[in-house]
Amino acid sequence: MRTRAVAVVALVLGALWAAVVWLPAQATSAPVIVVETSRGTFAFETYPAEAPKTVAHVVALVKRGFYDGQRVHRALAGFLIQWGDPRSRDESTEAQWGRGAAASSGAPIGAAELSKKLVHTKGAVGMAHPGDPALGDSQIYVTLASRDDLNRKYTVFGHIVMGEEIPEMIQRGDVIRRMYVKE
To answer: Residue 62 and residue 150: Cα distance in Å, rounded?
Structure first.
């Protein structure tokens, strides 16, 4: 009987040791990006396993403060909100927001990470592009409804996980006060 109890304890301790040693190495968490806007704050998880280059690119832009102070240049009720044009900080250039080569960071991702698995449900976060998914750069959008027509045309690299109601309140010209990677 005592041998059986020792075996059970050893089994439990072995399982705990495996959880402590193995799980942290395996469970590397995906970056969560927090977006503080003039209408409130929301956050989205990213999908580095499915869109590694896109996630790495956006995280790098966020960490260098690229999005801070920009304005939402596209807000279509029931469809999406979009930002990522550095010129949107200057209201005098509003007619040009979101258009042309200057409407980006200037360093396209260079990869079309389109997925059959990741689709445009409400709250999906994707990378806009000027006609070629590999040319996506800095313009991010959040879908306000499921949009099957966007699937496999744009890279979905995240999904809203906090403040789901905020994107629906955002209007063109609202400020992205700050974006940061939640540590």
So the answer is: 25
Q: Answer yes or no: CATH 1.10.600.10 is held by domain 31-182.
A: no
Q: What pLDDT was estimated at residue 29?
A: 85
Q: What backbone torsions phi and psi does residue 177 show, to the nearest 5 degrees?
A: -65, -45
Distance CA 155, CA 46 (A): 12
The CA angle 3-4-8, to the nearest 5 degrees, is: 120
- Coil/strand/helix, residue 85: coil
* Cβ atoms 47, 55 nearer than 8 A: yes
pLDDT category of residue 28 using cuts at 50, 70 and 90: low
Domain ranges of the chain: 1-28, 31-182
